[in-house]
Write a structure and sequence with these properties.
Oligomer: heterodimer
Low-confidence stretches of chain A: 16-28
Number of helices of chain B: 2
CATH topology of chain A: Ammonium transporter fold
Helix content of chain A: 55-70%
Strand content of chain B: 35-45%
Structural class of chain A: mainly alpha
Low-confidence stretches of chain B: none
Largest interface: A-B, 19 and 8 residues
Largest sheet of chain A: 2 strands, antiparallel
Largest sheet of chain B: 4 strands, antiparallel
Strand order of the largest sheet of chain B: 2-5-1-6
CATH architecture of chain B: 2-Layer Sandwich
Radius of gyration of chain A: 23 Å
Structural class of chain B: alpha+beta
Order of helices and strands of chain A: HHHEEHHHHHHHHHHH
Number of strands of chain B: 6
Number of strands of chain A: 2
Number of domains of chain A: 1
Shape of chain A: globular
Strand content of chain A: under 5%
Order of helices and strands of chain B: EHEEEEHE
Chain lengths: 443, 112
């Protein structure tokens, strides 16, 4: 068959010309960047993967076999509900124009946002989706607090209300240009200071951790807590889930750079180093304390390291990553004991100790390790470590207060309407069969 | 006829099966069980919390034999499954009233 060369040749020339022109990123801010867009679409999938099924498996393995399906169901259900809510109001409240307190409803249902709108160098719908995966995982994290005894209806109602009242506004304050994005209202020295929370130390981990503590306390402990419980039914699943979370976290922190560049590269570097260091510290403590390093321990250490580095991942350097991980491994390890033994709160899967404390720890450490002198990317012009610390601490306080009060009110509303807890027979039989009519392992 | 129930360490199942078939046993049933005797349970630690595990995994084997085989079976299991450690297990002998082969309807020792 004789092929006509001229059209092919013209086509190839045009292709080459276009390729030559779209080389390194151009200076204009609102031009679509293919590399950034491709990366953030990928990061979106990675972060969704963290919930579906990473977190689900991580938590699933930690509960008794009679409850594993209920945990998977809660994560899956929250993913679906959060997705719809994010479209309907969540994204708008978080990233709409609005005022300093909330973004308003202007972007509800992605009104007016098609394929051409940009958010920075990526399409706005990609930014919308990327942020949605964060809105999905945050209420998902809270699952750990109430496993093995909560009603499924309570999970869905609580998560939905919480997303609208706590998560979306908090996102707006820190990432949507709200009250914590310029702390000047608190004092002259903090004028123009934006809370440094790169990927969600406060927005995701602290919010979830505080809510976890409150719902665990109101729900009351599992029957048999603390001395008559059964161990994790499948530590293997815990590891698989933790590994998926770790990989997905590259999208969580790396994607928060919102660009495919060295900043993203550094973010995933420090993220990974922090995770690895926290793991080693965790199993070292176990080795000394109990004589054996455990799989559940190393998996938990990873999560502690990952949660802690999250707020600082775009601001600190590799050595900072080491320090974050090192401290996370120690502090989160002991916090588990403090919550369960000292405070006697059955935050069953240690959400506050690992995510809450980890996130807050990372926020505060960022004040120091963001500085160039400690290997960081550099504090803003005119901001000292001391000033940064005051700003970060203020952001922590505001976040914790709102999350605490609002979560409490929401829990009470859910308690008064659909009820929080299954009855004791259902709890004994297991949620899989009583709430969902299904058996996990047909042995 | 005798019905012999032996609780042995799971790791010994293959060796016991081989030894029993060597002395002429035609079949046996095994199941995974858990229990305790003088070998108490143990403690497992997950995220700093201790869990008392009072049951130890074991394997139960059940064999129906003619009266004349019973002693040889007991001796065979004891020598194969034993290790001089607490937790080796126990053998129980029950009187077997009747045995039936389902396919043919044979009864008694013919069915074994």
């Amino acid at each position: 068959m004789r092929v006509t060369l001229r059209p092919i040749g013209l086509f190839l020339f045009a292709l080459g010309a276009v390729a030559a022109m779209s080389g390194p990123a151009l200076a204009a801010e609102d031009k679509l960047n293919g590399g950034d867009t491709a990366w953030i679409i990928t990061a979106t999938a990675l972060v969704l993967f963290m919930t579906m099924p990473g977190l689900a498996l991580f938590y699933g393995g930690l509960v008794r076999s009679k409850n594993v399906l209920s945990v998977l169901m809660q994560c899956f259900g929250i993913c679906c509900a959060a997705s719809v809510i994010w479209l309907v109001v969540g994204y708008s409240i978080a990233f709409g124009e609005g005022n300093a307190w909330w973004g308003g409803l202007g972007k509800s249902f992605l009104a007016g946002i098609g394929t051409e709108n940009l958010s920075g160098t990526i399409p706005e719908n990609v930014f919308f989706m990327f942020q949605m995966t964060f809105a999905i995982i945050t209420p998902g994290l809270i699952v750990g607090a109430y496993v093995e005894r909560i009603k499924f209806s309570a999970v869905m109602l609580f998560s939905g209300l919480w997303l609208i009242v706590v998560y979306a506004p908090s996102t707006h304050w820190i990432w949507g240009g709200g009250i914590l994005a310029d702390l000047g209202w608190a004092g002259e020295s903090l004028k123009g200071y934006a809370t440094m929370d790169f990927a969600g130390g406060l927005v995701v981990h602290a919010n979830a951790g505080i809510a976890a503590l409150i719902i665990a306390k109101t729900l009351a402990s599992r029957t048999g807590f603390p001395h008559d419980l059964r161990p994790p039914h499948n530590p293997g699943l815990v590891m698989i889930g933790a590994a998926m979370l770790w990989v997905g976290w590259f999208g969580f922190n790396g994607g928060s750079a919102l660009a495919a560049n060295g900043g993203a590269g550094m973010a995933i570097t420090v993220t990974h180093i922090s995770a690895a260091t926290a793991c080693l510290v965790w199993i070292t403590i176990e080795w000394f304390k109990f004589g054996k390093p455990s799989l559940v321990g190393i998996a938990t250490g990873a999560i502690a390291g990952l949660a802690t580095i999250t707020p600082g991942s775009g601001f600190v350097g590799p050595v900072g990553g080491l320090v974050f991980g090192f401290l996370a491994g120690i502090i989160c390890f002991y916090m588990i004991n403090i919550v369960k033994v000292k405070w006697k709160i059955d935050d069953s899967l240690d959400v506050f100790a690992v995510h809450g404390v980890g996130g807050i720890l990372g926020i505060l450490l960022t004040s120091f390790f963001a500085d160039k002198s400690l290997g960081g990317m550099g504090l803003p012009e005119g901001v000292t470590m001391g000033t940064a610390f005051m700003g970060q601490l203020l952001a922590v306080v505001v976040t914790v207060i709102w999350a605490g009060v609002a979560s409490f009110v929401i829990v009470k509303i859910v308690q008064a309407t659909v009820g929080l807890r299954v009855n004791s027979n259902e709890e004994t039989e297991g949620l899989d069969i009583t709430s969902h009519g299904e058996r996990s392992y047909d042995l | 006829m005798k019905y012999i129930v032996a609780i042995i360490k799971p790791a010994k199942l293959d060796a016991v099966r081989e030894a029993l078939t060597d002395i002429g046993i035609q079949g046996l049933t095994s199941s995974e069980v858990s229990g305790f005797g003088r070998q108490k349970g143990h403690t497992e630690i997950y995220r700093g919390a201790e869990y008392a595990i009072s049951f130890v995994p074991k394997t139960k084997i059940e064999i129906a034999v003619g009266d004349d085989m019973a002693d040889r079976v007991i001796e065979c299991i004891q020598s194969t499954a034993g290790s001089d450690n607490i937790g080796d297990g126990k053998i129980f002998v029950l009187e077997l009233q009747e045995a039936v082969r389902i396919r043919t309807g044979e009864r008694g020792e013919e069915a074994l």
